[in-house]
Amino acid sequence: MILAAAAFLVIAFCMSCKTESAPTGFESPSATIDSLFRAYGVQDISQEEARRRLQARERFELLDKQLFQNCFSDWQGEHDHALGGFVFGQLVAAKEELQITLEDDTAQVRAASASPQLQAMVLVKQRGGWKIDLRQSVPPKIRQSLYEVYRRARRAERQAR
Question: Distance of CA 126 to CAs 30, 49, 91, 132, Å?
């Protein structure tokens, strides 16, 4: 009887010590990229189709805004949509040839066919999940250009009122 009670306590203790698992969809860099693709509903389209749509400047519709925002470690607000869109475009254009390199709590993602000089998309492990770091993934000149477009659009919007 005492042995059974002791075994029960050990099992209960071990279950309470269980480490916190990563939220579903962010447990690995590839899972996070898949979550980003799910946010746009493109997980089942081919790389060829994605490239065709990008080349034709067809718009990809964001289906899950919350999932999209949750893919990023440094999401700060609406002004980051363009940065997230840039990252999405880079990843979806190479979705069937992405190579992920892990080093500690950082992952670099690039297309297998891409030049090593092209900036990799960077994911960081935080709070048990992998998230895309926008500011490390979007080159500074592109980031500034996208922010300027955002500022001009907001200014025009305010003037139109």
Answer: 15, 33, 21, 10
For the stretch 61-91, pLDDT in tens is: 999 999 999 999 999 999 999 999 999 999 9
Residues 70, 75, 80: CA angle, nearest 5 degrees: 115
Predicted TM-score of the model (pTM):
0.81
pLDDT digits (tens, 9 = 90+) for 19-32: 445 457 999 999 99
Please determine, for residue 124, whether its predicted confidence score (pLDDT) is greater than 80.
Answer: yes
Q: Which helix (H) or strand (E) holds 34?
A: helix 29-40
Q: Residue 41 has what DSSP assignment? A: T
Identity at 104, one-letter amino acid code: D
Query: How many Å separate Cα 123 from the centre of its chain?
Result: 7
Buried b (16+ CB within 10 A) or exposed e, 64-101: eeeebbbbbbebeeeebbbbbbbbbebbbbbbeebebe
pLDDT surpasses 50 at 117 = yes
Query: Domain locations in the chain?
Result: 23-160
Dihedral (Cα; 98, 99, 105, 106), 10-degree rounding: -80
